[in-house]
Write a structure and sequence with these properties.
about 60% helix, about 180 residues
Length: about 180
């Protein structure tokens, strides 16, 4: 079995076999050569790892910005009008959104080499992160918050959030399939 360091190199295998039949012994010797297929990295591994770590930091920045972003108008009043169980669902959903962003940031920051190495575990994590951000990209327009965004700065921030979702979905999706 080849080790990762041997991948992509030409290997020469010597075959020596003995055949004993009756009183006669024959010796066969042969040389075979093969080339193993390897996926060539598109960018240098250190640059990829640095990019993943920067994405991890940006996940944390997103979390901090979300903490200070104004919630929709009359949030408290509208939330209070809901049954208790629905209020708890709304709060739990926001907590879990934050927890997933925190997880994605921590994995990207502290386990960037694993995400970049193309291993099954790294690819599965990248696929999960891509699915998360792709899902948010689909859900954000469905929320219809645009009319409630007061001012150009909030609208620009919402556009940047869409861009972030698209970039993360594409980048982590690419990593999951390379």
């Amino acid at each position: 079995m080849e080790t990762p360091k041997e991948l992509g190199r030409t290997h020469i295998h010597l075959e020596n076999t003995a055949n004993c039949s009756g009183n006669k012994m024959t010796w066969k010797s042969g040389v075979t050569q093969r080339r193993l297929r390897i996926k060539q990295p598109v960018m240098h591994d250190e640059a990829l790892i640095m990019g993943l770590r920067m994405a991890g930091v940006l996940h944390f920045v997103t979390l901090v910005v979300a903490w200070f972003t104004p919630i929709p108008p009359d949030w408290e009043k509208n939330l209070a009008a809901l049954p208790e169980v629905h209020r708890r669902f709304a709060v739990a959903q926001n907590v879990f959104i934050g927890a997933v962003i925190l997880f994605c940031g921590a994995v990207s920051l502290f386990f960037a080499p694993v995400l970049a190495d193309g291993s099954t575990g790294g690819r599965i994590l990248c696929a999960g992160i891509a699915l998360w951000w792709g899902g948010r990209l689909i859900v954000l327009p469905w929320l219809h918050v645009w009319p409630g965004l007061r001012g150009k700065a909030w609208r620009a921030g919402f556009v940047l959030l869409h861009a972030q979702c698209a970039i993360y979905a594409a980048a982590y999706g690419w990593l999951s399939m390379r």
